[in-house]
Specification:
- By secondary structure, the chain is α+β, with helices and mostly antiparallel strands.
- It is built from nine helices and eleven strands.
- It has three domains: 120 residues, Helix Hairpins (Orthogonal Bundle); 112 residues, HSP40/DNAj peptide-binding domain, CATH 2.60.260; 90 residues, Urease metallochaperone UreE, N-terminal domain (HSP40/DNAj peptide-binding domain, Sandwich).
- A four-stranded mixed sheet has the order 6-7-11-10. It has a three-stranded mixed sheet with strand order 1-5-4.
- A hairpin with a 2-residue loop joins strand 2 and strand 3.
- Helix 3 packs antiparallel against helix 4.
- GO terms for molecular function: protein-folding chaperone binding; unfolded protein binding.
- It is found in: Endoplasmic reticulum.
């Protein structure tokens, strides 16, 4: 019986060693997404969005390396955002995932799979405490963009000041982490022990610094939309910086008012023009001329729609409409002769 137990223990140790060698050789899913092993779901999602945008095939046409990288990023994201798959991967690596998939992705049943072997070997528990990654504050800046930039697209230079981490005298605890190891407490019996371990790093301090940022304003962006600068918020010692977000607000304009995807403006015409018609153009935001002429009678406060002359829709080739409200300028007084003629014409 003792020989059989020794053989079984040696088999278990061989499994552990082979898993360790495999883990060192292969690039982990965490490395692919450039996040620590204890990354939160939010960190993983933000890292994925950043990398997926960078390596998306639409932005890297003909680049096979980028396409391959994009596939790796998606595969890593799929595993790490599935709590059960991530748990299996953290414990047993890709080999464990393969056996997990082969068993139908189920922890139950009587298959006696890879997880069951390790569970028996370590006394039923290999739960590791998740490493919490500290994150600095997000910074949200209300940014007024001109209607011209929101119509045609443009850039804005923004001056920003933030805390920057600088060297300081002395040493400090850093890179603190929970290390898990197993101690044999009897034949075939092991106890899991968790211990916090810290390194000693040079000390640091915060200093305020300013710098210039170029913010790209995209055509058709709406109020409330945000332009994101990853990890450009407030820094965090032994953590990752928060994000910087510019929240768009439409600046007031002298001629046009924005109403969602539409534009509105007011044009004043004379009473004669209102009665007999007129020829008139208005200069648009990109300086092209819009013909608003009329050959019919125009009533005071009348509103006319000019299709496709509004704001461009964000990330679309479509445009909203332009609504023109006509104000009629009445004369302040009429001579007796003018009154007679008006009566002759309108009476």
């Amino acid at each position: 019986m003792a020989i059989r137990r020794t053989t079984l223990n040696l088999l278990f140790l061989a499994c552990i060693l082979s898993y360790t060698v495999f883990s060192i050789a292969a690039k982990s899913y965490y490395d692919i997404l450039q996040v620590p092993k204890g990354a939160s779901d939010d960190q993983i999602k933000r890292a994925y969005r950043k990398l997926a945008l960078k390596y998306h095939p639409d932005k890297n046409q003909g680049n096979e390396e980028a396409t391959k990288k994009f596939a790796e990023i998606n595969n890593a994201y799929e595993i790490l955002t599935d709590s059960e798959k991530r748990n299996v991967y953290d414990r047993y690596g890709e080999e464990g995932l393969k056996q997990y998939a082969a068993s139908g992705g189920s922890r139950g049943g009587g298959g006696g799979g890879f997880q069951d072997v390790f569970s028996q070997f370590f006394g039923g528990g290999m739960e590791e405490e998740e490493e919490k990654v500290l994150k600095g504050d997000d910074v949200i800046v209300e940014l007024e963009a001109s209607l011209e930039d929101l119509y045609m697209g443009g850039t804005m230079k923004v001056w920003r000041e933030k805390n920057v981490i600088k060297p300081a005298s002395g040493k400090r605890d850093c890179n603190c982490r929970n290390e898990v190891y197993h101690r044999q407490i009897g034949p075939g019996m092991y106890q899991q022990i968790t211990e916090q371990v810290c390194d000693k790093c040079p000390n640091v301090k915060y200093e305020r610094e300013g710098y210039s940022l170029t913010v790209d304003i995209e055509k058709g962006m709406k109020d409330g939309e945000e332009i994101l600068f990853y990890e450009d918020g407030e820094p965090k010692i032994d953590g990752e910086a928060g994000d910087l977000k510019f929240r768009i607000r439409t600046a007031p304009h002298d001629v046009f008012n924005r109403d969602g995807n539409d534009l509105r403006t007011t044009v004043t015409i004379t009473l004669v023009q209102a009665l007999v018609g007129f020829e008139k153009t208005i200069k648009h935001l990109d300086e092209h001329l819009v013909d608003i002429s009329s050959k019919s009678i125009t009533k005071p406060k009348e509103v006319r729609k000019f299709k496709g002359e509004g704001m461009p829709l964000h990330l679309s080739n479509k445009k909203g409409d332009l609504y023109v409200t006509f104000e009629v300028l009445f004369p302040t007084s009429l001579t007796e002769e003018q009154k007679i003629k008006v009566k002759e014409i309108l009476g």
